[in-house]
């Protein structure tokens, strides 16, 4: 796998040397070496605006593009509420100017909301540590990968539909040598064991649902209500920010066979600042 990553980095150089690209580390970038060193290639090959966003780490940083404030988070470094990344995230969110950048979009590698069997609840610990902070400051959209399929969620917070929660989107289907993920955790006989899906770094916090149709269960018996659309297909997505309240998200299938009908999912994502404006006068408490 390490050799394949080196080849990929080489193939990317003609593009990344000319076109700005913001990246975040995933599990394949861990690359543990002799002496316990991790992420050597990632840190050597990608320049990110860490210092510019007052971060002391290339694993988490932020930047503005147009009317969007992008936040990139590290799932394979300390994300606990007592850690440096969490403290940085809180300060970054407090300082967002929602007039200059009305939209706030976050991204990290493994999804928190995922109805596929693969990587199911794998990063539940990270969700429990950080979700409340993102919700309090009204992050609008979250992009993740890791699961080799496509899935878009309804607005959700703590596994409950919430009109002020982010729209979570998993786009881990750009292409890989490990094939596409097909099985859903709600398919008959496909619910993982709570001993499955252990993250490479971090703890295990698998839970049974405490409310709703799946109360008391580890998996749903049907597509979860927070899962709006899912498809096992290679693809890519485009986010078009139209104005301060409307953005158009379109997911396209990559297979040549679809040709002009490649569009698989499309939705207008609408901000409601009058309903969901963050209360910056109230500092978020970890106990909320």
Automatic annotation (TrEMBL):
Residues 9-150 form the Calcineurin-like phosphoesterase domain. Residues 1-17 form the signal peptide. Residues 217-256 form the Purple acid phosphatase C-terminal domain. GO terms for molecular function: acid phosphatase activity. Keywords: Glycoprotein, Signal. The keyword Hydrolase does not apply. PANTHER family: ACID PHOSPHATASE RELATED (PTHR22953), PURPLE ACID PHOSPHATASE (PTHR22953:SF153). This is Purple acid phosphatase 15. It comes from Dendrobium catenatum.
